[in-house]
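pinned: reference chain
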Amino acid sequence: MEQRANENSVQKVTAKRASKSIGPLDKEFDAAQEIGSHARSGTPRDAVNFADVLLLAVPWGEVKDALSAAGAMNGKTFISCVNPFGLRGLEVGLNTSSAQEISRFVPDAPVVEAFNYNRRLIQEAGRKVDRT
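pinned: its structure tokens
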């Protein structure tokens, strides 16, 4: 694996290893071109059509719109990095998680939660964390 000392090294290494790509979108296209010749930008629907696993990393208030723009998931796996916080604080109760709430919007796709703050809040409140 090629290593570089600049801030874009992870993206550049990843882009050089990619074998397929998706279509252009203005500034995203320019950024993808800078990263590497195999990287491409695209719409949420393009991402669903292209990938087997999708990473959802949007503000909590944008989840429904992002998933709506992506269309049918057809069994694609979602990794959610969404923290369920809005202007009023935590937007889901302590008896659920953002991944559980997101899975209601995409019943045809498994949702895995990663890099999420909600589990810590549940544990601090003294509730048992559902590991399913």
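why pinned: The helical segments are 9-17, 26-35, 44-50, 63-70, 98-105, 118-124. Residues 1-42 form one domain.
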